[in-house]
Amino acid sequence: MTIKAKKGKLGVLTPGMGAVATTFIAGVIAIRKGLAQPIGSLTQMDTIRLGKRTDNRNPKIKDFVPLATLDELVFGGWDIFPDNVYEAAVHAKVIERKLLDEIKPELEAIKPMKAVFDKNYVKKLEGSYVKTGSNKMDLANQLIADIETFKKENDCDRLVMIWCGSTEIYMPESAVHQTVESFEEGLRNNDEHIPPSMIYAYAAIKSSVPYANGAPNLSCDIPALVQLSKQTGTPIVGKDFKTGQTLMKTILAPGLKARSLGIQGWFSTNILGNRDGEVLDDPESFKTKEVSKLGVLEQILEPEKHPELYKDLYHKVRINYYPPRGDNKEGWDNIDIRGWLDYPMQIKVDFLCRDSILAAPLVLDLALFLDLATRAEMSGIQEWLSFYFKSPQTAEGLVPMHDIFKQLIKLQNVLRHMMGETLITHLGLDYYE
């Protein structure tokens, strides 16, 4: 596989410059200045095995594939509030003020562009810093102009876009989503089935800018935008960053299944108080998130193949808005399992996590990997990046893979394939020892 050489700057654009985006941006700047470590980022911290185990070839991923470096990144985006990144980060209360003050000049220099926003799709938010236009196609063209202007003004060679905005109301696929032509006609006619996240996705893909969807919104996960991504040679991926409670499920469930332990019930509840929590307090936005979360266990456990273990599994997910907790989300899981002779047991998990701290390194990895995929001329859905998502986008007719360990193997093997290395299957035969 031929990978085009990287040159110049890589611009990272984020629709939504709230807690996740500002934590990502501030984190990268702090790491560049030697003030912190990129913990949680595979591209920066992890190694990859090459060849036989006896070869002892285990380079860091960033030294194995030609990724953009942190020094080459430039940041921009859109938000419904005019606050610069320093002001937004202070308001988000994720990163300590002391660290933010050490990088204040760099953060203050990054200011959002006016956002495409419609309160009908995110009912708990009020936005004052928003675009107006004659129709949704006009708004899309304004975003396309923003993309071109940002690239030129910041002297960027390439761009990527990562959706870091809020969860929109639940929306099933409809007729307007089926073809590029029907979608563009829907933009011109202000079709109600085209929310802001789809307008951003369209603008990115139309501009040949790779796009990742960090929320459970449909966004680019519709036939029209998949088709457009192939026409423009643009990689796309989504959806919904896999961070707290779902991360734990994709770690624990494969282990329980591997030991053939039965599961009767899995009750999950969350409390969080950031903007995401406020948005999810609306039942229609919660439905979007619920659908994303509920599909994980069924795919991993495959109850249709193991009915005696999982056919009666009861899976419940709840999210509760609790302002005092801020960005420090707490996820409680109660798992009722069955062992030998049907004897019942329980597992309790209380994950006191920091949502944006877990999400920020995912934004970094996705930006770097999507840029790599673009230079490798990989277009359309990038299933090898499913590792990062709660509800991975797949080709039509395929069931997403949720087992995080299988996802990691796939990601690593794609990197090996890119660089002409032997794929690792862990068969244990002589030539894989």
Overview of the structural elements:
The chain is of the alpha/beta class. The chain has helices at about 20-30, 40-45, 60-65, 85-90, 95-100, 105-110, 135-155, 180-190, 195-205, 225-230, 245-260, 275-280, 285-300, 305-310, 355-375, 405-420; strands at about 10-15, 75-80, 115, 155-165, 210-215, 235-240, 260-270, 315-320, 330-340, 345-350, 380. The chain has two domains: about 10-240 and about 355-420, Rossmann fold (3-Layer(aba) Sandwich); about 245-350, Dihydrodipicolinate Reductase, domain 2 (2-Layer Sandwich), CATH 3.30.360. A seven-stranded parallel sheet has the order 3-2-1-4-5-6-11, with helices on both faces. Strand 9 and strand 10 form a beta hairpin. The longest helix has 21 residues, at about 355-375. It starts with 8 loop residues before the first strand and ends in a 15-residue tail after the last helix.
